[in-house]
Amino acid sequence: MSENLFAQVKRKLNITWEDEETTARLTDIIQSAIPAMTHKLGIADPNFDFAKPGMENDLFKSYCLYEWNHCLNEFDDNYANNIAQVRARNEVEHYQNEVANDG
Q1: What distance in Å separates the CA atoms of residue 25 and residue 42, rounded to the nearest whole number?
Q2: DSSP per residue over 36-83, as a string?
Q3: In this structure, what DSSP letter does residue 102 have?
Q4: 49 within 8 A of 2, measured Cβ to Cβ
Q5: 34-84, pLDDT tens digit by residue?
Q6: How many whole angstroms from its chain centre is CA 70?
Q7: CA neighbor of 82 nearest in space, from 56, 43, 49
Q8: Is the pLDDT at 103 greater than 70, yes or no?
Q9: pTM score, two decimals?
Q10: Fewest CB atoms within 10 A around its CB: which of 53, 87, 92, 95?
């Protein structure tokens, strides 16, 4: 997890204070969110950088916000359309890369 991603999520959650417990909880949330969002969004690269600007970054920060507020069960329903769009794009890119590498 990059410091940039940590700072982005912290800003999204409006966390303006510093303490060990908050840092530990936020770190746990981000570390759990990385594999969850990689799977949900159909990202083939296990080292994908969620700190890069784009829909993946926006969805990642929102996922962390939902987890922070203990309402993660509502995330998929509220972002289903966005998740589907990003997943479809990533699946097409993955397919195109496979075809290019096989040809």
Answers
A1: 26
A2: HHHHHTT---TT--TTSSSHHHHHHHHHHHHHHTT-GGGHHHHHHHHH
A3: H
A4: yes
A5: 999 999 999 988 899 999 999 999 999 999 999 999 999 999 999 999 999
A6: 17
A7: 56
A8: no
A9: 0.91
A10: 53
